[in-house]
Amino acid sequence: MRSDMIKKGVDRAPHRSLLYATGKVKPTDLPKPFIGVCNSYVDIIPGHVHLREVGEMVKEAIREAGGIPFEFNTIGVDDGIAMGHIGMRYSLPSRELIADSAETMINAHWFDGVVYIPNCDKITPGMLMAAVRTNVPCVFVSGGPMEAGRSSKGQPLSLTSVFEGVGAYRSGKIDETELLDLEQNACPTCGSCSGMFTANSMNCLMEMLGIALPWNGTLVATSEDRHNLFREAARRVMDMVAQNIRPRDIITEEVIDDAFALDMAMGGSTNTVLHVLAIAHEAGIDYSLERINEVAKRVPYLAKISPASQYSMQDVHNAGGISAIIKELVDAGVVHPDRITVTGKTLRENVANANITNEQVIRRRDNPYSPVGGLSILYGNLAPDGAVIKVGAVAPGITSFEGEAICFNSQDEAQEGINNGTVRPGHVVVIRYEGPKGGPGMPEMLAPTSAIAGRGLDTEVALITDGRFSGATRGICVGHISPEAAEGGPLGLVEPGDRIRIDLTERRIELLVSDAELEKRRASWQPPQPKVQSGYLARYAKLVTSANTGGVLKV
Ligand SMILES: CC(C)(O)[C@@H](O)C(=O)O
Ligand SMILES: [Mg+2]
């Protein structure tokens, strides 16, 4: 047992003495596996506010199953609350803090197994990075999604309705009472925001990764059934430990393909691209950004969920859940189903009895929204190392967009330009120097993308950036442009009035300016001064790599 390192033999008498002092261990417990419970209880995030009780529930179930649990907690940033100010620059960097702190706890104390309890955006990938890095047997069980909201008129709502509501209010489309109605009804319970945003995308992908149990992504946080899922995860970790099945046995290269396949079928958040690449990197898998397009080309887009439609995670759950989508992909022969998962069964066995019960919410593979996936990687002279767009959340019928560049060197300036009407139909809004290094921290831009969508301009204005988006972003929004402007990427060479063309069919993003002119501009380009000079963000900016490699830190 790994934990023998801290509990067996004469040299470990002091260690045992300390373990007894915790009140959690008796001498008769020493032969039992020590299980870490990596929780993320934080009470400013609605997706995490209920996790203190969940931690207790999981620990009780571990004891019942014959293990000794020890709980520790990670930090967590609420992306919604951190949106639109300096707070958002800490969001992506928090992923590395979470991975590093989980690794620290697991390796310092030699746990035999771990139950990870994540929920919101960076907590799930941070913990997954730690899981494959430490490679200690584990099971993941997330906090669960929020119930969908309803306006006083009965219209379905999610957090995106409030962000877009701000744009609608500022442009006079709704009044203060209507905005207040959205604000007060969009987020009715605890749980991760109710659409296919980043948190839920990652929590659904874990079902396909086989590292979480079926229903992990869609069973709402408030449901009694979710309690059974927490207890079952605790029981399953004991089997994973007994059989020594490790995260890297479960998460292999083919399984990374499968994660992207589900992402394509359900139109996951663009952030999943960053996170899954980072997880692959930690697992020692060399996975390129280009490979995602190969998956996209063979996987149909089956489920349009908010922000691409009005359907919530609850609707997906009631329509058969993620297992029903996976079953379609298994039957279509586009994933690798004969591999082990934390249920102790194969993926094929996990989904054998799954059924689509509502074909409005989850379409069958012979009637997809599109024969290709909901996410796309674009290349071109503006993004030699790639860029990402959620094509599934672009208005139907738009396959390309050409417009005139309007340039902003920060998100704040762009927000002002959209709010004061400087941004007009036909514009391609360029927001640069907001990448992993330049931001620093590659902030999510839900405020400007919602301001455009809320004004009803989402088919007439495009937005391109080296920053990133929320899962709730919709419209012609291209993010993760690599290399980023602060590193000398061509995005920094765009001038107001330049023509930019985005072609979704050809997966291209081009600046319609000659190579000779671009070379001239490059010769006079100066790298910007770092925006943050001290603290974690300054350290992060020095170590972070490009978005096309998942924004992982250099070792
Ligand atoms: C606040 C949101 C909607 O959770 C966003 O952070 C996302 O990435 O989806
Ligand atoms: Mg987010």
TrEMBL record:
<comment type="pathway">
    <text>Amino-acid biosynthesis; L-valine biosynthesis; L-valine from pyruvate: step 3/4.</text>
</comment>
<feature type="binding site">
    <location>
        <position position="444"/>
    </location>
    <ligand>
        <name>Mg(2+)</name>
    </ligand>
</feature>
<protein>
    <recommendedName>
        <fullName>Dihydroxy-acid dehydratase</fullName>
        <ecNumber>4.2.1.9</ecNumber>
    </recommendedName>
</protein>
<keyword id="KW-0001">2Fe-2S</keyword>
<feature type="binding site" description="via carbamate group">
    <location>
        <position position="122"/>
    </location>
    <ligand>
        <name>Mg(2+)</name>
    </ligand>
</feature>
<keyword id="KW-0028">Amino-acid biosynthesis</keyword>
<dbReference type="InterPro" id="IPR004404">
    <property type="entry name" value="DihydroxyA_deHydtase"/>
</dbReference>
<keyword id="KW-0456">Lyase</keyword>
<keyword id="KW-0411">Iron-sulfur</keyword>
<feature type="binding site">
    <location>
        <position position="79"/>
    </location>
    <ligand>
        <name>Mg(2+)</name>
    </ligand>
</feature>
<feature type="domain" description="Dihydroxy-acid/6-phosphogluconate dehydratase C-terminal">
    <location>
        <begin position="360"/>
        <end position="550"/>
    </location>
</feature>
<feature type="binding site">
    <location>
        <position position="121"/>
    </location>
    <ligand>
        <name>Mg(2+)</name>
    </ligand>
</feature>
<comment type="similarity">
    <text>Belongs to the IlvD/Edd family.</text>
</comment>
<feature type="modified residue" description="N6-carboxylysine">
    <location>
        <position position="122"/>
    </location>
</feature>
<dbReference type="Pfam" id="PF24877">
    <property type="entry name" value="ILV_EDD_C"/>
</dbReference>
<dbReference type="InterPro" id="IPR000581">
    <property type="entry name" value="ILV_EDD_N"/>
</dbReference>
<keyword id="KW-0100">Branched-chain amino acid biosynthesis</keyword>
<comment type="subunit">
    <text>Homodimer.</text>
</comment>
<feature type="active site" description="Proton acceptor">
    <location>
        <position position="470"/>
    </location>
</feature>
<keyword id="KW-0479">Metal-binding</keyword>
<dbReference type="Pfam" id="PF00920">
    <property type="entry name" value="ILVD_EDD_N"/>
</dbReference>
<dbReference type="InterPro" id="IPR042096">
    <property type="entry name" value="Dihydro-acid_dehy_C"/>
</dbReference>
<dbReference type="InterPro" id="IPR020558">
    <property type="entry name" value="DiOHA_6PGluconate_deHydtase_CS"/>
</dbReference>
<comment type="pathway">
    <text>Amino-acid biosynthesis; L-isoleucine biosynthesis; L-isoleucine from 2-oxobutanoate: step 3/4.</text>
</comment>
<comment type="function">
    <text>Functions in the biosynthesis of branched-chain amino acids. Catalyzes the dehydration of (2R,3R)-2,3-dihydroxy-3-methylpentanoate (2,3-dihydroxy-3-methylvalerate) into 2-oxo-3-methylpentanoate (2-oxo-3-methylvalerate) and of (2R)-2,3-dihydroxy-3-methylbutanoate (2,3-dihydroxyisovalerate) into 2-oxo-3-methylbutanoate (2-oxoisovalerate), the penultimate precursor to L-isoleucine and L-valine, respectively.</text>
</comment>
<dbReference type="InterPro" id="IPR056740">
    <property type="entry name" value="ILV_EDD_C"/>
</dbReference>
<dbReference type="GO" id="GO:0004160">
    <property type="term" value="F:dihydroxy-acid dehydratase activity"/>
</dbReference>
<keyword id="KW-0460">Magnesium</keyword>
<dbReference type="InterPro" id="IPR037237">
    <property type="entry name" value="IlvD/EDD_N"/>
</dbReference>
<keyword id="KW-0408">Iron</keyword>
<feature type="domain" description="Dihydroxy-acid/6-phosphogluconate dehydratase N-terminal">
    <location>
        <begin position="32"/>
        <end position="350"/>
    </location>
</feature>
